[in-house]
From TrEMBL:
<dbReference type="InterPro" id="IPR004328">
    <property type="entry name" value="BRO1_dom"/>
</dbReference>
<protein>
    <recommendedName>
        <fullName>BRO1 domain-containing protein</fullName>
    </recommendedName>
</protein>
<feature type="domain" description="BRO1">
    <location>
        <begin position="1"/>
        <end position="381"/>
    </location>
</feature>
<comment type="similarity">
    <text>Belongs to the BROX family.</text>
</comment>
<dbReference type="InterPro" id="IPR038499">
    <property type="entry name" value="BRO1_sf"/>
</dbReference>
<dbReference type="InterPro" id="IPR038898">
    <property type="entry name" value="BROX"/>
</dbReference>
<dbReference type="Pfam" id="PF03097">
    <property type="entry name" value="BRO1"/>
</dbReference>
Amino acid sequence: MMMLQFTDPTKLKTRKIVFEDIFAALDPCTLEQLKELSSKRRVIEETINETSSITEAIAREIYGGLTSQSEQDLHKLKQYLPLLENFIFHIDAISSNRQVMYWVSNLKIQWTTAIGGSLSFLNLMGPKYYQVGNIRFELGMILFLYGATLRARAYEISTEALVQSTTLFRDAAGVYLYLSQEVLPSLQSIDAGKKPPESMSSVASVMSLICLAEAQVVAIKKAEERKATVGLLAKLHHGVTEFLSEATSILYSGSGEVRDVSPRLFGYISSFKCLHELRSQRYLAKSLQATGQAGVSIGILHEALNRAKEINPGEESWRLIIKEEIDIVSESLEKLERENEFVWHEKIPSVDELPLPQGSKIVNAIPYQPLRYERQLIFKI
């Protein structure tokens, strides 16, 4: 079972931050920790900006034999995040100080967008950098990248390590849920046009739902391996579409927060949903045919194909996967129609008379637990 992929969320860029150049440390220990914070971030900067001079062989040695780029990237992010959490903890404690507010604004935290609607202009003008004078902007963007990297790793192993892949997608869903509920609300007062979509709670909620849909797809592969009934498979595939319907309703809610989201994200969700509607209806038709309801099965397949024709996948790889599914459904329909013509002679019900599909959602987000290195930081204020 082929899986649609959408890797755009990993394609973020950022500009350099040197914490020790902005924040005045009162003691050598604090200065060293600021330098470590800058060093761990620099590794991430060089990776996503594609400016690193480290060879693949050296990278494998540095990261304990890890050969996967996404695994190495996760390692880098896991080293930076606890330091950043500790830095924010100490900044929050003295945030009322004017000097501290001045330092934070001078960090010049700058990130591009990977899923913004203005992406089509990048080749002409170069990437647009958003600058937000709030340290939680940095945390939000790093966590967004972390969730995207978890998804990338889940994609890599989605054909051979099904349980681990499902877990990674669920982990990513938990990261995005934490982002939407705990981190990004503090940026809500900033005008939507002055920050990237990745820093918006509604977009993080959409990403969480997408990750859950992807986790369920991999879980379905496991169910197929275990020879699950066609009735159960129909419900599981429809469960995927329910996650995506919820994501779609957020995107089309009219919220100003999501007005600048890339059409590719909309296209991915609609294509993803179309594919699993087709699969759900195919399995539902099979289950009904087994109980002697050939006419209803024909009606279901007809309607599934009609709905699929309304979707225009934006990417060739998505189009090919959906076309393959359409071909399977069309072949099943032709066979059923021939058999009905010569054997069963059942009436084909109208669309209004067809049974409504039922969904079953069997995955949930794994809660993200932020880790903070508890180290004392003392600033000269």
